[in-house]
Structures are given as structure tokens and as C-alpha cells.
């Protein structure tokens, strides 16, 4: 049976750095703290808490809202997808809008696009992974999940029997796996490194 590759979007194919940096800076300003110090604190927390940039703030303070814009693709995203698309059928499993891939011009690369907005559930709920596998008519053992979050991408995919590749980008890439269940089959630091494995 044909092996499938499934991708997360945020901090996997989409570079969220700009929006994350802006949110951290604006939140630090509201907290009247140094943005550099605040970021360092968040990076330390991210080692054990994948929700570092979503966590509850002290004294009832609120995070600055996410800037309302679409994240750009990592520069290597399209070249890597072009190579992989010639060897594998590709899919997306993401907590994004149902039209995000189309808005980015990526829809031609993906045979299956399972977005939380349309699925009615979101990662790490195993149902969204099962929906994608069903749409692909793919057995979990013939599927590989590629994502930046151990909690949202690696752990639930492994529980279903999928192979996993952890792409260590963004805040998700700073996390230390808390147990064997959260340890990916492979780790890469960037998209081009996928081509050495796949």
C-alpha cells in the first residue's frame, strides 16, 4: 500500500515567527516588562509546557490578541513539497481554517486536507487524524505525521500507529519529550532535512 505523508501547518509549513514575536512584544509592553526578558522566560517554560505562548498570565493579565494575518510559508516549503509530491500522496492535518491551503496556493500539493474548522474537532483529538486517514483510505502504519508540536502532532499520531517526524521549529521545537510516548521516530531542524529521511 502507498505510504502517505501528513503535514501540520503552523510552524511546520507556515512561519509563525512574525506573529509570535509581535504578540510577545505587545504582551510584554502591556505587562510593563522587558520583551527580551519576557521572551527568555517563555522559552524556558516552553521546554516543559508546549502552551507557553498561550498560558495563563499572572495577576489576571491577558495576552495581546494574535495579529490578524496569514503567516507566510517557510522559504523551503514549496521546493520540499514539490519533491515529496512526486514520491508520496500528501495530506494536511491542522488546526486551521478550511481554506488556508488554498489561500497559500498549496492546495495543488495535497490530496487530503483535514482542517479543524471543517472537521468539528481539533488536534490533539484523535478523531481529526482518523478522518484524514479515512479520506486517504490509508492504514495508520502506512502514514507519517510531520509536525512541530509533541502534544498536538507526535503523541496523538503515535497513539494511532502512525510514524512521526518532529520538525523542531518555533516554540514547539523547544519542548523536551516528557515520555517515550511523545518521542518522534525522527527529528529534523528544518524542512529540507525531510528529504534526507524521505
Quick structural overview:
The chain is α/β, with parallel strands linked by helices.
Report on the architecture of this protein.
Helix 7 links the parallel strand 4 and strand 5 (163-167). The chain has 2 domains: 4-15 and 72-197, Rossmann fold (3-Layer(aba) Sandwich), CATH 3.40.50; 17-60, no CATH class. It has a 6-stranded parallel sheet with strand order 3-2-1-4-5-6. The chain has 8 helices and 6 strands; from the N terminus they run βαααβαβααβαββα. It is globular, with a radius of gyration of 17 Å. It starts with a strand and ends with a helix. It is of the alpha/beta class and 198 residues long. 36% of the residues are buried.
